[in-house]
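Could you help me review a protein record that somebody else here produced? My question to you is simply how this chain folds and whether the tokens agree. Thanks in advance; the entry in question is below:
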Amino acid sequence: MKNTIPLIKDFDALAKKLDDSVHHELAKSSMGLSPLIIALAVTDWLMHLSVSPGKQATLSKKALELMADVLKNPSPGLQAEQGQPHRSDSRFTDPAWNTWPYAQLKDIFIAQHSWWDESVEIEGMEKHHLELVHFYIQEFMDALSPSNYPITNPEFLNKYIQTLGQSWLKGLSNFYADAWTQSTRGINQATSSAQKLAFEPGRDVAVTPGAVVFENHLIELIQYEPTTKNVSREPLLIVPSCIMKYYILDLSPQNSMVKFLVDQGLTVFMISWRNPESSDRALDFNDYLNLGVIQAIRAVQSVTQCEQLHTMGYCLGGTFLAIVSAFLGHHQSSTSKGDNYQTPALIKGLPKLSSTILLAAQTDFSDPGQLGLLIDQDQLKTLREAMATTGFLSGKQMAASFKFLNARDLIWSKNTKRYLLGEEETTTDMTSWNADVTRLPEKMHSEYLDKFFLNNALSTGYFEYEGRGIALMDIKSPMLVVGTERDTVSPWKSVYKINLLTNTDTTFILASGGHNAGIVSEPGHPKRSYHIHHSQKGHGWLDPLSFKNLAQEHTGSWWPEMSAWLKKISKVEVPARGILKKQTIRQAPGRNVMVRYMD
């Protein structure tokens, strides 16, 4: 009997290992996604469609109508005036798409797309399944677009004739060059070498003068040299997302937010996160709050001797900052102190926050946008199995997920231009930064997805930090919150919900652009605009539609609004704080940002 129990335990462990292995191999065959949730979603759709004869009849009627529409309008260009959703598709803007037979191919494709879009809308389906089926049909149709193939793309033929075949040869050359790069990536990874970036940190980007003045296992803290004689009394600490390299906020000098803020008379500090290794797999979410945000605040205080400071968080860094701001607000507020109150040792003596600025940062994850499509219990299990072998989520995996979510622009349109038309990609500082991917530790990433995306613990008060449930209502400092109109990572209506969770003085800015381009919106950038609305402390709920109706619309960059908002809070100036030699560990941009992997 004594020998039987260990055998049973070993058998159970082996059985689980076998299940995990099979699940992992299935996921590899479906680009790292869980094939089970895809199958469940399609099954849900097909079963509801099979018992909906009315819907079937409607779809049959629509198919006949669309077919008749295509057949009775053979004239080139006629369909472009119909005002239907897909008529303005950027893939078909070239005049050649209005000539025979390409106009007909385009219209057939658009008709099919329209039919499939309507086929998904079936009452009774589970919401997540409906969203998944709609997304995968979109991906399937994007793959079938006539613009993707040489024989059905008139732009390919026209350019081939114009260049006497040189565009085709250039496209083939691009294809084989990319294939060679992919085939040698494993060798580069084994030798720990990474391809050079078009814009290298410290040379082309991340060049604002400064120095690392503090470091621990997880972060470097960079202080930037002042450029004005006097500065605001309160320094500014920026908490970037650990999903990305910090220099998205310090790109080239002409579009560096860091340089802009320094030139506005602020003493700016920036966290530069460690790019983790396998040995960092146990770093958890609270480590990012403690070793990252809290210790950075303490280091800023040590360097500047400040009693208060401004704070700014971008993307996931904004989520970190919102938690810390609420934690500090609760413990530093006089209303929370009773006779037996003791300040937690973690934050004892820390300065108060003069402001909390959140850039494209979610605090309510009930509507997470496109990322929510890839996050559910089964998908989380798949990710855990993948991370169990490495100890981290690789930058390659994250980049592949974002590509998959935006396949039309990042895969198909890109391939059409590069391989069919033989056009070289225009590399900018932002696209170069986008290629400089980072990792996330296994435990921290699992907690992030589970607690925030799956359970929305922060907005409901169930996220615990240092043994206490965090309530965003405890944020006491004035807030400036920025969302971006075309953000698929942090949808602006989701970002806007911070107004529902707090009652402090809040200014909300809705900027044009996407998750990155809407934030990197320097003065002078063409075609930029924003809406802005201020709500005083104790404000009630103003829904997003009402906000857009009430908010003032302005053209240009929103950065000057941020500067004016900070200056309104910081009315006292002090002589500029230079970086002391004894505090300098190394020159900016430091070494964390230089760590790159080819995984």
Observations:
- The CA atoms of residues 483 and 496 lie 7 Å apart.
- Residues 163-190 form one domain.
- The chain has a mean pLDDT of 88.
- The first helix runs from residue 4 to 29.
